[in-house]
Design goal:
Elements: E1 4-13, H1 17-25, H2 30-37, E2 40-50, E3 55-60, H3 66-73, E4 81-86, E5 89-90, H4 96-106, E6 107-111, H5 122-126, H6 128-132, H7 137-150, H8 166-178, E7 184-188, H9 196-213, E8 216-221, H10 224-230, E9 233-238, E10 241-246, H11 248-253, H12 258-264, H13 269-272, H14 275-278, E11 284-285, H15 290-301, E12 305-309, E13 315-320, H16 321-330, E14 344-345, H17 351-361, E15 365-368, E16 374-378, H18 380-387
Parallel strand pairs: 3-8, 3-9, 6-7, 7-8, 11-12, 14-15
Antiparallel strand pairs: 1-2, 1-4, 4-5, 9-10, 12-13, 15-16
Helix pairs in contact: 7-8, 15-16, 17-18
The structure holds adenosine-5'-diphosphate and magnesium ion.
The site of magnesium ion has 3 residues, from helix 3.
């Protein structure tokens, strides 16, 4: 089940928002509504679902409605209309007490301006939220220390914020957001004020943290590269509306309209798309099948070689049609014709690096995941097609 589900979620700022919201149904734009009514459309009928464990990125230019949208999720801003479900529960129908519990137990928040208290130590800053929840001193210190360790600040607990670099201050902010062990972490431009290199480190760490802790993260950014790097899903906003939701690949390769197209046109695809984006299903065989069945598989699938894998898809090597024929003629054991020197790459290898590799080896590249498992194969044509911005065909075998 989705952890968050929003239906036509809308926020209008002004004196009579409900009446103004009706104009959205008539298709009035943000601009027209402002011109005619002096009301500002913050979020316009946003429909989306967030699955547990996703990094859901909300991206858009300044003023597009990102902060308003994220604040609707914990009702720091009250929606004008629409629906919002958290694990199937209607957030907009919660009593004040339920809402308080929802915010305290299930949601953490990290802001761009770290908003640290200068006269509190690092650990005191992290436990602040727990303190106002009335969690006793010993317990909250325990929780804060755990959170502090998670973000790599062990040893800094008794320092003061001004003794820390910007990147470390943001870690404190992150630790504070994680201190109550929330299911959802809302991050509003959390890394936007950081220097580029520190920012990249923080992005990597967030991805790692996410893999470890399986949190659902709603991450806001106005930076496309950041969105593409960390997003599982990206919602692109314009004038309060979500203009497209999709994976980074979908946003890049299948822009929904001219606006998205322009937004992504300067992206260097070779540095963003990875092997897992362009790989196809590999034609495989298990070793006990032998050379005759191998040849038959190759004929059926129109390929001239097969990857040899064990029952758990661990890559053993590759066999060619030529060698299979030779092994039948000369009565060689099948094992002896398996070539083990196969070019491989990890799923997150960027196309730039793949392309360089393929220039030298003139062979398809096997994509290998954890435990040496074969996940797919990348052929040169797919890399070229992706780099030239062509949509890739789905499915199909290739070697
Ligand atoms: N409290 C408010 N009162 C009136 N208008 C607001 C308020 N907060 C935001 N807005 C307007 O709502 C729109 C979306 O703002 P915001 O969500 O802050 O955008 P973003 O975070 O993408 O920069 C903007 O037009 C902004 O001026
Ligand atoms: Mg904002």
């Amino acid at each position: 089940m989705a952890i968050i589900e929003a239906k036509k979620l809308t926020k209008i700022f002004g004196s009579d928002p409900k009446r103004t919201a009706a104009l959205l149904d008539k298709g009035w734009s943000k601009e027209k509504i402002f011109a005619e009514t002096k009301h500002t459309v913050g979020v316009n009928q946003a429909d989306f679902t967030i699955e547990p464990g996703q990094i859901f990125v909300i991206m858009g230019l300044s003023g597009s409605g990102k902060s308003t949208l994220v604040r609707l999720l914990n009702r720091l801003i009250e929606p004008t209309s629409g629906q919002l479900l958290f694990n199937g529960t209607d957030v907009l129908k919660m009593s004040p007490e339920q809402l308080r519990q929802y915010r305290r137990k299930h949601i953490g928040m990290v802001f761009q301006k770290f908003a640290l208290f200068p006269h509190r130590t690092v650990v005191q800053n992290i436990e602040y939220g727990l303190e106002i929840q009335g969690i006793d001193k010993k317990k909250r210190r325990e929780m804060a220390m755990e959170s502090l360790e998670l973000v790599g600040l062990k040893g800094w607990e008794n320092s003061y914020p001004d003794q820390l670099s910007g990147g470390m201050q943001q870690r404190v902010g992150l630790a504070r957001g994680l201190a109550n062990d929330p299911e959802i972490l809302l991050m509003d431009e959390a890394f936007s004020a950081l220097d580029p290199l520190i920012r990249k480190d923080m992005q990597d760490e967030l991805i790692e943290l996410q893999l470890k802790m399986k949190k659902t993260i709603v991450f806001i950014t106005h930076d496309l590269d950041e969105a593409l790097r960390i997003g599982d899903q990206i919602a692109l906003m314009k004038d309060g509306s979500i203009v497209q939701i999709g994976t980074p690949e979908e946003i890049l390769m299948q822009p929904a309209n001219k606006y998205v197209e322009r937004f992504v046109e300067d992206v260097d695809l070779s540095k963003v798309l990875t092997a897992s984006h362009v790989m196809k299903k590999a034609a495989t065989i298990t070793p006990e099948k032998g050379p005759r069945v191998s040849l038959q598989f190759m004929r059926e699938q129109g390929v001239s070689s097969l990857y040899v894998v064990d029952k758990r898809m661990q890559l053993l090597g590759i066999i060619t049609a030529e060698d299979a024929v030779r092994s039948i003629k000369e009565g060689l054991p099948f094992e002896s014709i398996i070539q083990t020197d196969v070019p491989t790459a990890a799923p997150d290898t960027v196309l730039n690096d793949l392309f360089e590799m393929m220039g030298q080896i003139r062979l398809p590249v096997a994509v290998i995941g954890e435990n040496n498992r074969l996940k797919g194969v990348v052929v040169k044509g797919a890399v070229l097609a992706a780099l030239s911005g062509n949509t890739l065909e789905e499915g199909g075998h290739a070697i």
